[in-house]
Design brief:
Length: 375
């Protein structure tokens, strides 16, 4: 294992190289461009043997991955913001065809107004597309999660695509120490892809037309596969920890300072690191962190367990569903109907969520402040 100082984008690129996809489809868009640029450099320098396909749009990049994966090749792409919106049609096709593609997203706001900075509006818009969604707190977690994503996606009980999310600029462009796993260990953890391969002597139809009698059965199977993914995620996280020495809670949810806490903050992504820092720096005992790593599948059981006995809950998210509030908050409220849940929306379009903001959130949760609170 080698330690390097890498930006989050390059950490993902290094992980992708170790996973050895046969096809990488690329179209640049800020702030994910450094992922694809770094992979392109590695291919040009002979470090990474793959078919690097330069597409003319994000829709085409995902379509290339669809075709290659359907032919039996492990694939990768990356995108963000308007690029995710442009490939929306193909995202549903990929999950419906049960193709275990892995995509990295450097989360960025959706226009309008035009903005290149971070929030979760791009991937939250695709939360019902049938893709698993994992949100990372650090560059190291992004590296590890990318490797795990392939193993989870390719499990025959799952066979669904995965998106690995990092906060745009906050993680994608910031340098951190990252342990780069040994290639031999990664190959032990993630064997070569043995998915279905195109056989012209035994042709099959993929992405077929389905009438009313069958369409719902396909969706039921997708739903069951997403539910199956929870146990696969847990096992994969445990195996990764045993081999590489790093794990992330259950793989679905991670808690911090919850042992004696009366109050909890629920959030995802890089903001979790800020909350940990505030808890440690201010020696806070009564507030803990519940970090959701897996937004899809949504870890209902783990969240209920983590919030058991908590007096009041605050949900902090970089997302707004106009007319409703924070989408993550309303999913949490559905699990905790008898307790106070405060909705905090902040960080939209890259707006800083500062230490003083976190302290104010702690106070509001203690006071059980209601309604939508803008940070």
């Amino acid at each position: 294992m080698v330690k390097k100082v890498l930006e989050g984008s390059h950490a993902i690129a290094e992980a992708v190289k170790l996973c050895e996809p046969g096809v990488v489809a690329a179209y640049p868009i800020t702030p994910q461009t450094h992922i694809i640029e770094r992979i392109s450099e590695m291919v040009a320098d002979g470090e990474f043997r793959t078919k690097f396909s330069r597409a003319e749009s994000e829709h085409s990049a995902m379509s290339i991955c669809l075709g290659a994966q359907a032919a039996g090749v492990r694939t990768f792409t990356a995108s963000a913001s308007q690029g995710i919106a442009l490939m929306h049609e193909v995202l549903y096709n990929v999950s419906g065809m049960r193709l275990p593609i892995v995509m990295a997203v450097a989360n960025r706001s959706l226009a309008s107004p035009l903005n290149i900075w971070c929030d979760w509006s791009d991937t939250f818009a695709e939360r019902d597309s049938g893709w698993l969604q994992f949100y990372c707190e650090s560059a190291q977690e992004a590296f590890d999660t990318t490797i795990q994503a392939y193993k989870i996606a390719e499990n025959p009980n799952v066979s669904l695509p995965v998106v690995v999310c990092i906060d745009g600029f906050i993680l994608s462009h910031v340098y951190e120490p990252v342990d780069i796993a040994d290639k031999t260990l990664v190959r032990k953890f993630l064997p070569k892809y043995k998915g279905r391969k195109m056989d012209f002597n035994k042709p099959v139809t993929q992405g077929a037309w389905a009438g009313p009698d069958y369409f719902q059965e396909f969706k039921k199977d997708q739903h069951e596969a997403m539910r199956n993914a929870k146990d696969v995620i847990r096992r994969t996280n445990s195996e990764f920890k045993r081999i590489f020495g790093r794990g992330y809670g259950s793989g679905l949810v991670e808690t911090y300072n919850m042992e004696s806490a009366d109050y909890a903050i629920v959030t995802m992504g890089s903001t979790c690191g800020t909350i940990r820092h505030v808890i440690d720096e201010k020696n806070i005992k009564d507030v803990g962190l519940v970090k959701i790593k897996s937004f899809r599948p949504f870890p209902i059981g783990e969240i209920k367990k983590a919030l058991n006995g908590i007096k009041s809950i605050g949900v902090l998210e970089k997302n707004i569903s106009p007319g409703l509030g924070g989408a993550l908050c309303y999913e949490i409220r559905g699990l905790t109907r008898k307790r106070s849940v405060s909705a905090f929306v902040g960080g939209l379009g890259g707006k800083d969520v500062k230490i003083e903001d976190i302290l104010n959130i702690f106070d509001d949760v203690r006071k059980e402040r209601r309604g939508l609170i803008w940070v």
